[in-house]
Amino acid sequence: MTDTVGLDEQALARAAGHQRRFNALFEEYFDTLSTRLDAPSFSRFTPDCLELLRELSLRGGKRMRVALLHEAARLVTAEPVDGLDAAALSIELLQTHGLVHDDLIDDSPTRRGGPSTYYAYRKQFPQHPHAAIGLTVLAGDLALALSLQAILDAKVPGELRQAMVEIQTRAAADTFVGQIIDLERDFAPTAPDEDVLHCVADYKSARYSLLAPMQLGLLAAGEQPAAFEQELRRYARLVGICGQMRDDYLDLFGDAATMGKPTGTDIRDGKHSYTVSALLSAVGDAERAVVEAALGDPACTSETIAAVREIGERCGVAERMRADMRRHAEQACLVAAGWRPRWRAEAVTFFERLPLWSVERAM
What we know:
The protein has helices at residues 2-36, 45-58, 64-74, 84-106, 117-124, 129-152, 158-185, 194-220, 229-253, 256-259, 265-268, 274-282, 285-294, 302-314, 317-337, 345-360, and strands at 110-111, 114-115. By secondary structure, it is an all-alpha fold. A two-stranded antiparallel ribbon has the order 1-2. The two termini are 22 Å apart. 42% of the residues are buried.
């Protein structure tokens, strides 16, 4: 047991080191971006856009995608690997793109403890709401273009650059499809079944947040991720499902003070999340009426959200969701454990423990 704990502490320390190093790299990237971006000197909106992207990108985030990238490379070698910095920049710029567009789609005023890009533009252009929407879309699009350019600028062989760009382009396309089916899910006349929820989590989150960083890290380290496509996808999907369940669970059953944001957002927005779907399938008619009355009501009070939470706890929804999260996490751990004969043990341990760390964040 002592050895296992020690290895976990080492993995956590490495993840923190990846975060610190990348944050410095990301800041340096934005410090020099204006000199590398071809924009006309008269434009005032372009520097404003870059500053909003910088501010959002540097504001926070655990950089777990960056840790996944580096730990995937460590599956193959402990030696420095060329191309990882460029891949890390690409991954986090794609994340910035997603945050900008997510907040526009969801009409979210805040992100990472500050104003969303959309609301920053709304404040800047209060009399021009269409311009605020347009500039938000363009800011997100610019982040996506910069994400791909980061890899194209990498000082690695052309064949490797091409393969890395293909991974990121496919991940971006999958994420867009995920956003589409996420919106489509909430227009369905009935609560989605588990297969639909899992599919949305896979496309919207797992493929770009987990699968792509792992593929990029392996590729940069000289491995061919295509040879392990099925197991990498299964691992990423399980962890992605677990993470989405955790987020949906915390939205109702989490502690608002700890999270730094109010609970019940998904209910007020009418989202058919894992939690909402579990509620609707578990409650009786009288309790269902309470949940359905709150669902999609932006003026839903905190007292009503508390009542829905109490219904979920009393009907066993919270307990069942925690069990489902742990079950998916344990399945992912087993997938990673199968890598031990092939790859380096310390990095395999990181991937074995990651799913359970995710679950423990919700407990």
